[in-house]
UniProtKB/TrEMBL annotation:
Regions of compositional bias (Low complexity) in chain numbering: 13-28, 86-99
A GO term from the CC aspect: cytoplasm
The protein's name in its UniProt record: Signal recognition particle receptor FtsY
Group of enzyme by EC: hydrolase
Main function: Involved in targeting and insertion of nascent membrane proteins into the cytoplasmic membrane. Acts as a receptor for the complex formed by the signal recognition particle (SRP) and the ribosome-nascent chain (RNC).
Cited InterPro entries: AAA+_ATPase (IPR003593), P-loop_NTPase (IPR027417), Signal_recog_particl_SRP54_hlx (IPR013822), SR_rcpt_FtsY (IPR004390), SRP/SRP_N (IPR036225), SRP54_GTPase_dom (IPR000897), SRP54_N_sf (IPR042101)
Organism of this sequence: Gloeocapsopsis dulcis AAB1 = 1H9
Membrane topology: Peripheral membrane protein
């Protein structure tokens, strides 16, 4: 059974506790406890429950790792690592391509560099009108030279993929597998805690001890080191609060949540901690609300989103004094509500539909992380069991095509590109759709140019691509995603407005949340563009982009 990363979504009904519940951080489905019990030593019990959940999850992951090492890897670890080293020939290329990209400052987006499209759009349009006409034939299907197989990629990242039912069964020693822990009677729970205490956690094994020899891989692989630290505990708690079972928790999810929280660290320190300090001073009053307003504006949350948050807080404090925990819980509720509001007019889940052609147009200015995002989504798609293909339709810059190819190679996903420079991107798209149709591709990711000379050219090119897609694959599920660099804050939003007009956007990918204090821009994005955030990126590694969860984002933003 393949874990579908795309469908890993927070369910509001199941997981979102009410404000009051959050204030007491009562774990979900704890309704069997009496009020008195909750009042007395609820927090100690909850901590124990979460701790036991985390321990059980930790043990399960450990066992799965041990199993996958012994079953899937007949060769000793050393030889596996050697393989990884030898298959890593593309890594230096990746570095050099990124170096090329970084030579091109984002500022260059602004200057007008008029370069007419090489082919008159009329020619392409006529092709579209007569779909039976053979497409441009120069476009080549580029099969990656290295041809890293899915299993090689797997070897790179040490996954816990495909825990079969049998594996799951055998990996569990605790009775927690059949019932959620919070549903157990007090006596049973105590017994379990005792048992867990007895089976103290072993020190994490240095699974990737040879990482020094493989620097690039080491960076990614080390993300999967299993360490029972504070970050693990927090991540496990977030998963438990969403109704997950310990046996369902994977090291990848834990790693991602840790990364997300770490990525939002600067935002949290600069913005949220100050808000929490204000809220924690006592019941919210008008002066405190004004202080919060100033902080939000400074953190690029934007005027509209700030007004919304402040109004909501003021409305609430008119009705009742808000003690600190309730105020924080209410703030979380406001933020989650804002982030989820666009979902009333867009699909709540964002996953490619199986056994059909899904086409995702990726747009955004150069440097926003578009190519990287395509590579990461392709990786997720492969791992989640979708047939995936990439169209390198950013023909404006040769390096962009090369970069897509490298990412395709890393994910084992084929790339359709045109060997010529400045060729018609719509022709590449046409050929990519033809290839996708003949190969039963389920997800076609289209890279588009981000740096066009002016707004009109950009709009013309994007709408031309869109026309091709609509005409050639009218049955396909089409999404148009804008990749936005979070570090740009409000400036990024101005760019977004241009793309929103040109590309019929259906969602946003927010990249580079790591290392910026402007994580608050996520709120501005949804408020100003009314577009849902579909993915967030918090690092440069292939595993550092995941589907967006408003619950996890807000928890990470406001975690202590
Ligand atoms: N820290 C961090 N860096 C990122 C993230 N996403 C992308 N990057 C980096 O941002 C730089 C630009 O990313 P690209 O994917 O090349 O951006 P692009 O929009 O495709 O730009 P072009 O290739 O010029 O079209 C690269 O160095 C990426 O590694 C992220 O989530 N976090």
């Amino acid at each position: 059974m393949v874990f579908n990363w795309f469908r890993r979504q927070f369910s509001h009904e199941q997981a979102a506790p009410s404000t009051e519940e959050q204030a007491t951080t009562t774990p979900p489905e704890a309704e069997e406890s009496t009020e008195a019990e909750i009042q007395s030593d609820a927090s100690a019990e909850i901590s124990a429950d979460y701790l036991s959940f985390a321990k059980a999850a930790y043990k399960n992951i450990q066992q799965r790792q041990a199993q996958s090492e012994s079953v899937a890897e007949p060769a000793p670890i050393e030889s596996t690592t050697d393989e990884v080293i030898s298959s890593e020939s593309s890594e230096p290329e990746a570095t050099s391509t990124e170096a090329i990209v970084s030579e091109t400052p984002t500022d260059e987006i602004e200057p007008v560099v008029v370069a007419d499209e090489p082919e008159p759009s009329l020619k392409l349009d006529s092709q579209v009108e007569n779909v039976s006409e053979p497409p441009v034939t120069e476009t080549e299907s580029i099969v990656t030279e290295d041809e890293p197989t899915a299993s090689q990629i797997e070897a790179e990242v040490v996954t816990e993929d495909e825990p079969t039912a049998n594996e799951t069964e055998t990996s569990l020693e605790t009775p927690a597998e059949s019932l959620p822990f919070w549903a157990r009677a007090e006596a049973e729970r105590q017994a379990r805690l005792e048992r867990l205490k007895a089976t103290a956690i072993e020190e994490p094994e240095p699974v990737l001890a040879t990482t020094a020899e493989t620097p690039q891989i080491a960076d990614e692989a080390s993300d999967f080191n299993l360490v029972f630290d504070e970050g693990f505990l927090w991540s496990a708690e977030i998963l438990a609060a969403q109704g997950r079972k310990p046996e369902d928790v994977s090291i990848e999810e834990i790693t991602w949540l840790k990364k997300l929280r770490q990525g939002l660290d600067k935002t949290r320190r600069n913005l949220v901690n100050q808000i929490k300090a204000i809220v924690g001073q006592g019941p919210l009053n008008q002066a405190a609300v004004l202080e919060i307003e100033a902080l939000l504006l400074q953190a690029d949350v934007g005027v509209e989103a700030t007004d919304y948050i402040i109004n909501a807080l003021q409305e609430r404090i008119k009705q009742e004094a808000l003690p600190p925990e309730v105020a924080i819980a209410y703030l979380k509720e406001i933020l989650r509500g804002m982030l989820e509001r666009p979902l009333t007019s867009h699909n709540a889940t964002f996953a490619p539909e199986k056994d059909t052609l899904n086409i995702w147009l990726m747009t955004g200015v150069n440097g926003a992380g578009k190519t990287t995002t395509i590579g990461k989504i392709a990786h997720i798609a492969q791992k989640s069991g979708y047939n995936c293909l990439i169209a390198a339709a950013d023909t404006f810059r040769a390096a962009a095509v090369e970069q897509v190819k490298i990412w395709g190679s890393r994910s084992g996903v084929e790339v359709i590109a045109n060997p010529g420079q400045n060729t018609d991107p719509a022709a590449v798209v046409f050929d990519a759709i033809t290839a996708a149709q003949s190969r039963n591709i389920e997800l076609l990711l289209i890279d588009t140019a981000g740096r066009l000379q002016n707004k009109k050219n950009l709009m013309d090119e994007l709408s031309k691509i869109r026309r091709i897609v609509d005409k050639k694959a009218p049955y396909a599920k089409i999404e148009s995603l804008l990749v936005l660099d979070a570090t740009l804050g409000q400036n990024g939003l101005r760019q977004a407005e241009v793309f929103a007009q040109a590309a019929q956007l259906s969602g946003v990918v927010l990249t580079k949340l790591d290392g910026t204090a402007k994580g608050g821009v996520a709120l501005a994005v949804v408020q100003q563009l009314n577009l849902p955030i579909r993915f967030i990126g918090a690092g440069e590694g292939v595993e550092d982009l995941r589907p967006f969860s408003s619950y996890e984002f807000v928890e990470a933003l406001l975690s202590s």
